[in-house]
Automatic annotation (TrEMBL):
UniProt protein name: Sugar ABC transporter ATP-binding protein
Taxonomic source organism: Streptacidiphilus pinicola
Top-level taxon in the UniProt lineage: Bacteria
GO MF assignments: ATP binding; ATP hydrolysis activity
All residue ranges annotated as the ABC transporter domain in the record: 10-254
Record keywords: ATP-binding, Nucleotide-binding
Keyword set includes Nucleotide-binding: yes
Pfam families per the UniProt record, alphabetical: ABC_tran (PF00005)
Statement: the UniProt record of this protein carries the keyword ATP-binding: yes
Length: 261
């Protein structure tokens, strides 16, 4: 983890989100620095998804503030967050199975041909997209994606996840938010995705990892933000607390002193 020397890359203060009488978020703070993995854990209904959607522009909080690199931001849609350098990979994986790997990396960000061919006839520069995709995948060290022209529908679950994470790394200039990236993956593929998470961190991105898998969380996280009943129950580290402690805080069997929470 990079030692924080400047303003957090992403900071949320006092986030509140309600759905009628249901409280999704109750005055939640979150701080993420460049070059760190912040895991977000919590039981079902703890507010993890609502928190991530507020950070990524999918939901607008009722109260609270968001800052990117110390500057206030107001996300009204996911595109606003992407333009601010925040990429999100949801558990459902928004990939186009029929398209190849390079086309998926540049999905909705396609590179047009230069001159009238691109501006008038809207022709894509497939060669340039494949070249850049190959460079990015090589830089991330993704050895499982050998053929950039391969259709995503022919890839394994872990390889598809690698494509989605690579896209987040390619365009998330500041923050990558990963929602359950190892769900339904085997041991080997899980290890490959966790390596990608560490690689993104080592490249200086702030990474938010949402996961139910405690061994995965304790393997890669620098800090762990625990959600419970819509609020933050505390922030711990793998060095300061055990997996059993984390589960106890999640369930309410154990509470942290105010300074830690």
């Amino acid at each position: 983890m990079t030692t924080p020397t400047s303003a957090p890359v992403l900071q949320a203060k006092g986030l509140v989100k309600t759905f009628g009488r249901v409280v999704g978020l109750d005055n939640v703070d979150l701080t993420l620095h460049r070059g760190e993995v912040l895991a977000v854990i919590g039981d079902n209904g703890a507010g993890k998804s609502t928190l991530i959607k507020c950070l990524s522009g999918a939901l607008v909080p009722d109260e609270g503030t968001l800052e990117v690199d110390g500057r206030p931001v107001h996300f009204k849609r996911p595109q606003d967050a992407r333009e601010a350098g925040i990429e999100t990979v949801y558990q459902t994986l928004a990939v186009a199975p029929a398209l190849d790997i390079a086309s998926n990396l540049f999905l909705a960000r396609e590179i047009r041909r230069k001159g009238p061919l691109g501006s008038v006839f809207r022709m894509l520069d497939t060669g340039e997209m494949r070249h850049r995709a190959e460079e990015h995948i090589k830089r991330l060290g993704i050895s499982t994606l050998q053929n950039i022209n391969q259709a995503v529908e022919t890839l394994s679950g872990g390889q598809r996840q690698a494509v989605a994470v690579a896209r987040a790394g390619a365009f998330g200039s500041k923050v990558a938010i990963l929602d359950e990236p190892t769900a339904a993956l085997g041991v080997r593929e899980t290890g490959q995705v966790l390596k990608l998470v560490r690689d993104l961190r080592d490249q200086g991105l702030g990474v938010i990892l949402i996961s139910h898998n405690m061994p995965n969380v304790f393997e890669v996280a620098d800090r762990i933000h625990i959600q419970r009943l819509g609020a933050c129950a505390g922030v711990i580290t793998p060095q300061s607390h055990s997996m059993e402690d984390a589960v106890a805080i999640m369930t309410g069997a154990k509470t942290l002193p105010p300074a830690a929470a």
